[in-house]
Design a protein that fits this description.
Layout (H helix, E strand, L loop, with lengths): L10 E8 L7 H16 L2 E6 L14 H4 L9 H10 E9 L7 H8 L5 E3 L7 E3 L7 E7 L5 H4 L2 H12 L2 E8 L12 H20 L3
Helix pairs in contact: 1-7
């Protein structure tokens, strides 16, 4: 049987996940400013760069239906799962690759499938063991395109899975018209706003304790 996750297991922390293959690029800079904003509010953050992790893609083996965890692979997701369970806040950021999130982010999201419980026979009803715990998230994308339409469905590709898992996505942030590595560092307005958004998420998950 899958272990149940209770609201008491969560803490006012933020797990920030970056999915850019490019070190010290625009996504990394944005992530750091977002976390800095949350830290200024007094909420601890932990950032993980997926490019530095060894994460196998989900193969749909369904072993997690019996164990309640991913039993197929022994990789870096094993260390990420408990951090995700504990952190009430989540920040995801990905560059746009071909109208979508990067393969790194897609692989990470797919491996969250183990948190679902399904009623047999399938297809039937389902639920998430991360739901109803005051979890909140912010998702962001960075792209060279100048309109949300040209960006594609990268934001939705992160937002909808998180909502299905039980997160309230309080903000979706498209960062448009940025391509050259590190160029976002010149846009002080965007970086200031990212710090503000970090503070907003920190405040939201802190109030869940009230």
């Amino acid at each position: 049987m899958a272990l149940k996750i209770s609201p008491a297991q969560t803490k006012a922390k933020i797990l920030a996940i970056g999915a850019s293959p490019r070190n010290a690029g625009n996504s990394d800079i944005i992530l750091k400013h977002f976390c800095a904003g949350a830290e200024k509010y007094g909420v601890k953050t932990r950032d993980i760069q997926l490019r530095d992790c060894r994460i196998s893609p989900c193969v749909g083996c369904e072993l997690c239906r019996k164990s309640g965890k991913c039993s197929r692979f022994d990789d870096d997701m094993a260390a990420i799962y408990p951090q995700l369970v504990e952190a009430r806040g989540l920040f995801l950021i990905s560059p746009v690759h071909n109208y979508n999130i990067t393969a790194w982010m897609k692989g990470f999201i797919d491996r969250l499938y183990c948190f679902y419980d399904f009623t047999e026979p399938r297809p039937n009803s389902w639920s998430s063991r991360l739901a109803n715990q005051g979890r909140k998230a912010v998702v962001a994308t960075v792209c060279e395109q100048t309109t949300v339409e040209d960006m594609g469905f990268a934001l939705e590709a992160m937002q909808r899975p998180l909502e299905a898992l039980g997160y309230e996505v309080i903000k979706t942030i498209p960062v448009l018209g940025v391509f050259a590595k590190g160029r976002i560092a010149e846009n002080t307005n965007i970086l200031a706003d990212m710090e503000k958004q970090g503070q907003i998420l920190a405040r939201a998950i802190s109030h869940s304790d009230d």
